[in-house]
From TrEMBL, chain A:
It comes from Sedimentitalea arenosa. Residues 24-256 form the ABC transporter domain. GO terms for biological process: zinc ion transport. Pfam families: ABC_tran (PF00005). Belongs to the ABC transporter superfamily. This is Metal ABC transporter ATP-binding protein.
From TrEMBL, chain B:
It comes from Sedimentitalea arenosa. Belongs to the ABC-3 integral membrane protein family. It is found in: Cell membrane. The lineage of its organism: Bacteria, Pseudomonadati, Pseudomonadota, Alphaproteobacteria, Rhodobacterales. It holds the Pfam family ABC-3. SUPFAM superfamilies: ABC transporter involved in vitamin B12 uptake, BtuC (SSF81345). This is Metal ABC transporter permease. It is a multi-pass membrane protein.
UniProtKB/TrEMBL annotation, chain C:
It comes from the Bacteria. It is found in: Cell membrane. The keyword Transmembrane helix applies. It comes from Sedimentitalea arenosa. It is a multi-pass membrane protein. InterPro entries: ABC_BtuC-like, ABC_TroCD. Pfam families: ABC-3. This is Metal ABC transporter permease. Its main location: membrane. Belongs to the ABC-3 integral membrane protein family. One of its GO terms (cellular component) is ATP-binding cassette (ABC) transporter complex. One of its GO terms (biological process) is cellular response to iron ion. The chain crosses the membrane at residues 12-37, 49-66, 72-93, 105-126, 146-166, 197-224, 236-254, 266-288. Keywords: Cell membrane, Membrane, Transmembrane, Transmembrane helix, Transport.
Amino acid sequence: MTLELAAAKGQRMTQPAQSAHSPLSIRGLTVSYGQKPAVFSVDMTVPPGAMTAIIGPNGAGKSTLLKAALGIVKPLSGRVEVFGTPLAAQRSRVAYVPQRASIDWDFPARVIDVVLMGLYRQLGLLGRLRASHKAQAMDCLERVGMADFSERQIGQLSGGQQQRVFLARALAQDADLYLLDEPFAGVDAATEKAIIAVLKSLREDGKTVVAVHHDLATVRDYFDHVFLINTTRIAEGPVDEAFTAETLQAAYGGRLATAQVDQLARALG
Amino acid sequence: MSGAEFVPISLPPLLIGIFAAVACALPGNFLLLRRQALIGDAISHVVLPGIVVAFLVTGVISTWPMMVGAAAAAIVAVVLIEAIRRLGRIEPGAAMGVVFTSMFAAGVLLLEQSDTSSVHLDVEHALYGNLESLIWLDATGWASLWDLDALAHLPPELPRMAITLVVVALFTTLFWRPLKLSTFDEGFARTLGLRTDLLGLALVIVAAVAAVAAFDAVGSIIVIAMFICPPAAARMMTNRLEHQVGWSVLFAVLSAVGGYVLAGYGPLWLGAQDAVSAAGMIATISGLILALTALFGPCRARSGAPQDA
Amino acid sequence: MIADALLLQLGYNATLVAIGATLLGLAAGAAGTFLFLRKRALVSDAISHATLPGVGLAFIVMVAMGGDGRNLLGLLAGSALSAWIGLLCLGWLVRRTRLAEDAAIGAVLSVFFGFGIVILTVIQTMSSGRQAGLESFLLGSTAGMLRADAAIIAIGGAIIVALIVLLRRPMTLVAFDADFAVAQGLPVARLDLAMMGLVMAVTVVGLKIVGLILIVALLIIPPVTARFWSERSDRVVLLSGLVGGLSGFVGAAVSASAPNLPTGPIIVLVSFAFFVASLLLAPGRGVLAEVLRHLRFRKRVHLRQGLLALAQGQPIYEPLTLRLLRRAGLARADGVATETGRARAAKALRDERRWQVVRGDQAYEAVAALYDGLRDIETVLTGDQIAEVDRVIGRPQGVPA
């Protein structure tokens, strides 16, 4: 995959139409806050059963792209398809982990309450909360190593623990497509390990994972695909092809600090 | 006190006070957590212009047109606040301040301009109601509770407030999960397909209905105090939403009973002759409860921002 | 009659009230701006409602001491004291408990007001309390105002205005950026206190004219109105004072011109009229300007995206895009580009590639930050620079195809 706009699009257009629909496909998406587009005319096709990182400098529109894909912010133009149909028909197949900082953690709820929120589509308005639901939620907490904390108030957790609770809630949704907004931001090393292990196990189960990611040094270790964005799409493809010094230069321009470049040089070998 | 005295004079205002307090406290819990606590304040201020306009349109002082007028004014106010906040990019507090003061001013002006001085419609009544006057003349004692003829002459505020409470409680129960979800994490709720905007509007409308019904019975101060004080005090007692709502109901009932009793008998105990405003006293008691929980409640302190381990 | 009133021809008292209302509006507008800029506008609501118990208690104390309970200075002193206690409670709740400021405001205002009503009903039962007329503090009343009272209001307003003029620089700094003000060595805590003191003084002085429920309007509406017209905080303070003063003057004059026109509500409604006009018509932040800007912006986005799609032979999904292209004569109804359309599309694509080069090149860092998908590259680069960029595009090794 290359920087060349026309060539890249041409290539994607030749993808066989009869193959399984992409878990997430975005066409011509423009989102703006005020008078400056945060995301401009972006196309994106997420490959199924893989882990994709959305990468770009601060303010490049990474989170906005995710939020527009989920219908949380309203785009100025463009369309989003999830497994080949509009999002509304596929809500139960999509799980979302928002940025930890976007939440009021002083809310009166326990860890288990938050995870049970992930079962909302199963429970509905008035469905009885059964022991099996609780067991399901506990199982999800177990997978992220937080089972011992189920009765804690969420405000009393560390940042990493809160992030794991959010991941457990997403697991409870039992979706096919997982969208995560900066899951590794401000978490401890143990949490990062635990989260990546869970994400990889999801991939093994054939699920698709898309995460906004910050740390360029770990991209190669964690992800199969990358999507580089800086307001517009810069590059997209398997890590080996699309995550190169050239694409990074194009995405980050002068903003790629020297330290980061050194770090990358090592990461890229 | 004997039933012959208690049932006609004290029971109806006591029940109306309790129903009003609980009906306001229930939505108040969610408004508090959504940082919309002052919506109650705004709603209770715009009730006055609502009833004045209703009176000017219909030309009669009767309850239903006025309640409709008040509810309509509350909805107009909420829509205006939201519109001004978005269109003018103004912080919600200031947008609220602009709308409810202007509408209140318009209400007072209309009141002065119209010939309502002859009828019982004045600002003070709107502000602090007259809980004490809601008595049940046909009751003769506890037996009257089973006497259909007597029941037919209950003060109409009582069944109205009871129905309002049932509506509010039903709404809270029915939409408990979506309310909790969207209050905690609106973005996530939207990815589940919940219409968080409509839910937010519904919550405010239910709050407005509670405010209007309660205002009619007890004036607008209790309304503001009951929206905020019992839920705020309850928040100091627990870290679980379910328990918080339970505590808030308890505190609302305590305020209503304590306020009514103190207003009626407190002055007598102190040797004075006349009772003081029950609505004002109920608000005062709810404030005292809040003060106590703020000083001693087990969960009074913020959990604070978590440290990144 | 209104003309007479506006020209202060209605007698000594009305004139004094008009001057007092003008000064009050001026002071309220300016003091309210500091509160508004700190995003604490509704604190004034708590302050004003918290004055009520003070008014009542002051009356009781003055009567108990054998004086006239209606002495305005005494009542105002009482109201200031209880407003101050309300502020202390508010601050304590926010600092020491988990309550957010809005909840604390609501709790303080409703509880103090409720307690105030209890006191008022106590006064009504006192033998000297029947004609106390303290209810007039709820909504204000200038009818039958004593000459001395009018003088107190005018003098009080003048003093507050003078204090604001004196303190405007440091308070503007604090309101704009408290952290910076701390770094500058300003006593921020004390200035905050002074700000609250001023707001309280405005409230207390305004009790008699506009009443405690509506004084909030004078502290909030003028700043919000002024904010539409300027991005500079010192100008917002000035404009807000002007709006407030003008509202006070016009309101008092109109109210004096006919019966049944209560001063407080009229002043509030005049300032609300200023607000509505500004909300709709202000050139920068006004709604009309904003809507026009957004429509233009949306058109630019869609045209640009449409041209890029045309250039790359992609289908156009959005009906709006196609409509705009057709109206601009760039495409036919079936989505095929016209002659001009093809030329413009080619240019758009070429510009997009130029931008890619610019954004990937450290030498153009400053320019690259301007990229938003819409800006014409000619507006940020010289002809020579563009030629340079084009040479890079032409080179095969820079951009693998």
